[in-house]
Each structure stands twice: as C-alpha cells, then as structure tokens.
Amino acid sequence: MTTPVHARPIAERIDWLMELSRAHSASFCSPENHLARQRYLAEHNTQIIAMKCMDGRIHLPYVTQTPLGVIHPFRNLGGIFELGWPYLGDMLADTVQQAVTQGRRVLIIITYHYSKGSRERGCAGFDCDREAAMRHAFQIRSQVEKLFGNGHRTVYPLVCGFESDEDALVLHGSQERTLDLSTIPVTRLADMASEIASLCPDMPEPVQRDLLPLVEGNIRHVNEIRRFDRELNIEHREWVICLGRGFDFLHAPNVALIIGPYSPDLSHPIRQAAGIIKSNMDNGRVPDDGFLLLCSAPYQEPGTQKARAELKSAFLAEFGANVIHQAYPDLASRMVARSAILHWPERKLQVCES
C-alpha cells in the first residue's frame, strides 16, 4: 500500500511537490493545451481575473472546464485582500491597464468559499463563517468600483461563492439576486445566456458572452462529479508555507498555505501559517521531521526581470524565515527554506541555488 504524501519523510514530500510543479508546467506547455488556450482567447477577448483563497480546492479552471492560463489568479491566505495595499493595488491596476491597452474588457471574479454540508469545511481564514467571508468579498467589490468606476463598462466586479462540496459556483448579481449553478441541470444550458443577462443587466454584452462558457462548464462539472463519491471530510494536513507568487500548480487540498506578497504586514499571515503548521505537527496530522517554506517570484523575460525575481524570492525567504524563527524557534529548527523563480510564459518553477 502506498504511503500517503502527508505521511512521508520531508525529503520525499519536497520531491513530490517539485514533481507536481514540473507536471503542471509540462501540461501548461503541451501543444494541445497551448492551442486550446490560444483558440479560447481568440474567441473570448475578456481578461478574467480571479481573487481567491489559497485553499487548494478553489481551482477555477478545473471547475469551469476552462483551459489553463485563461484565468489570471490572485491568491492569498483566506482570500483576504485590501486594494489600499500599495503592491496589490498597483498590480491589479497594471493588469487592468494592460488589458485595456489591448482593447479588452476585464471581469474580476471575487470569490469566497464555504461548504453546504459542514461549516468546518469552510474558509479557515474567516473561522468558517460564510457570512463574514461573503461580506469581505462585497467589500472588495466596492473597492474595485472605487478604483475603476461603478459604471462597469470596462471593468466588471462579480462576487462569486464557491461551494466546495460540489465545486458549485453561486453568482451574485444586481438587487441581491443570486444564481446557484448547483441547482441547474445540463438540460438548461441553452437558457444560461438569458439567465446571466437577467442576473447582471449592467454587465456589457461581450463580458456576458465570455462569462457564459465558465457558467456552462461549471454546470457540466457539477453534474459530472455527482456521479462519484467524493471524500469531503479531509483533515487539514498542511506542511508547506508558500510565500510570493507563482503557485498555480498547487491545487492539491490541504497541502500548502499560500501567502501572496500583497499585504504591507506580511509577518502577520506568516505567523498565522506557521502556527497552523505547528498545530498539524503537534497533533500528529503530519510528521514532525520538517516543513517547507517555499518562496517564489515570477518573471516574463530573462535578464533584468529574472535577476529581479531572484532578489525578490531571496528576500521573501529570508524575511519569512526570520519571522518564523522569532515566533516559533523550535518549529524553525525543522524548517527547510527554498527560494525559487517562475518563468511565467511556461509556468516553470526553478529552485535557486543557496
């Protein structure tokens, strides 16, 4: 019988994680996926951005049957964002500006997640409180409107619930209306264009058209997984702290705690994540022989961009390690720290030499 990944020695777990990243890059760069992505983007011009939790279950390309690389993710512990954070605000504004320069509209999907079967399977960042997570998502929507305008002709913020038991999306439209895709059979796919138009009458027609494949894909996905028994009561067994950007390959549940480099006070979420890892070790959910602090920074081109990414990742690794040393010195003695860079066009992760 094969030993589960979470129960293996730390060196084997790290090898497994690196293989996961290599497999993701190979899949992303495969001719079939590359052509599917190019064809999809040619047919659907809207830039889609997703703001979501680090939870590995929140895998939007998978649950919407969308080619990898179409949805641009912003991931953070608990899905907690504040557009007043200088780096986050600049990154989001730059991403939108680049799309607008190319003549594209932007759909920003602001997610929160919950479990309909058990509160405890909800978002740990909000103490599994669905209402609190949803309120935060609407606060982000208000900030997006303040940043890009509330006319929604170019940038449309859409709050979207993610029910993790069935991977079902819940779209929040105007006048507090919602569309729960778990309630819609595949026989009604032909009605979805009119449903979206009714739900979000202020959404530009091109954006409605480009949201439609995600909606249809999610309805098909939910109906497909209902034919199989899913393991829902998955115990938290995280043994990796990811700090930075470039962790799209990590959509395995309960493996990693991902902290985006967005907040001006990174020490707080790092301490939170380290406390979770310590609890997992203390309670025997993962071996106490070690955990991984993996830091990453993406780059587009070689030269200055790559060198800058190396400096960013090295800084994050040193900063994160120092925070953990100060907060949990005993835990820090079992820490394996790695800095890496990610070649964004290939989604290829490269661990830097120490």
How is this structure best described in words?
The protein is α/β, with parallel strands linked by helices and 354 residues long. It has helices at 10-29, 31-43, 60-64, 86-101, 130-148, 192-199, 205-225, 267-282, 304-327, 329-332, and strands at residues 47-53, 71-76, 106-114, 155-163, 168-172, 178-180, 240-244, 256-259, 291-299, 335-343, 348-351. Strand 4 (155-163) and strand 5 (168-172) form a beta hairpin. The longest helix has 24 residues, at 304-327. The chain is globular.
Please summarize the sheet with the most strands.
6 strands, mixed
* Overall pLDDT metric: 92
- CATH names the topology of the largest domain as Beta-carbonic Anhydrase, Chain A
* Strand segment count: 11
What oligomeric state do the depicted chains represent? Answer: single chain
Percentage of residues in strands: 15-25%
Give the strand order of the largest sheet, numbering strands 1, 2, ... along the chain.
Answer: 2-1-3-4-5-6
- Count of helical segments? 10
CATH C-level name of the largest domain? Alpha Beta
CATH architecture of the largest domain, by name, is 3-Layer(aba) Sandwich
Order of helices and strands: HHEHEHEHEEEHHEEHEHHEE
**Class per helix and strand makeup:** alpha/beta
What's this entry about, in short?
The chain has 354 residues and is an alpha/beta fold. The chain is 41% helix and 20% strand.
